[in-house]
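Blinded run. Sample ID left blank on purpose so nobody reads anything into the name before looking at the predicted structure. Input follows.
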Amino acid sequence: MSDLYSVPLGDLITEFNLQILHMPDRDVRIDCMDVNRPGLCLAGFFDHFEPRRIEIIGNVESLYLQSLPEDRYCASVSQFMEHSPAAIVITRNLPVDDWFISSAVRYDIPLLRSSLSTSEFMAALIASLSVSLAPRITTHGVFVEIYGEGVMLTGDSGIGKSETAIELVKRGHRLIADDAVEIKKVSAKTLVGSAPELIRHYIELRGIGIVDVRRIFGMGAVKMTEKIDLVVALEPWDSEKNYDRFGLETECEEILGIMVPKITIPVRPGRNLAIILEIAAMNHRQKKMGYNTAEEFNKRLMERYGSDANPSED
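Blinded prediction complete.
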């Protein structure tokens, strides 16, 4: 899915303060989050070569090229450039000779240089590309940070998601997105949510209109992004439905192939949703730290009354 997205090479140059040795007079965009060290390529092995990757040349590659006779060196560099890598970055501020630069100019390959070590630059570049090119979806909901936990509220329009978010902001928590949440899969285990730029920091309250949370409550009331830790589904109270009263059942929602813990909270007049969500966030945080209140309570019941008191069977 990352193939659907790309990042301008100029953005990476600015982000990592790269020195430009040659930059083509065209729009260069990177659409592959993988990077490569071209040791085998410089030795002439190009099977499975991926030209969409950024190629990183460090000490090992530089020393190898310096060890070659001049004719082999020129042939190796030319053959490498002929395969049109997306861009080449020289790390550690290593010297670059005129032949290498002229070859990049001849084949119109972006040639850049970084002062960072090879490992440090690769790690930072992969992390940046993983976010910029991450698979993503946009879903209807409200996203807030509560006690450090990223909580996404879902439910039908008009159920009270935005009003609950405003109450949470007044209680010292932070708004990330209202109405539309853009979710990115930045790793095999991590989802990050944010707001589309057009509606960032805004919230809609029926009867009032659009509210700028950042201006009314201050910069401390908003946040750009947060990891999605918990999904809370709000639904109208149904007296016929049997809601979980002990918390022993574990429900999850699949988002971009990742299972996210989910709880369902019934809504009816008189319930303070902001306080309930605060408790839900703290309880979820407590579970992550290794303590599950429902399991502990069930254990105590079992010890005192035996299996007949198992609340999960109630």
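Unblinding after everyone has recorded impressions. DSSP finds ten helices and 19 strands in the chain.
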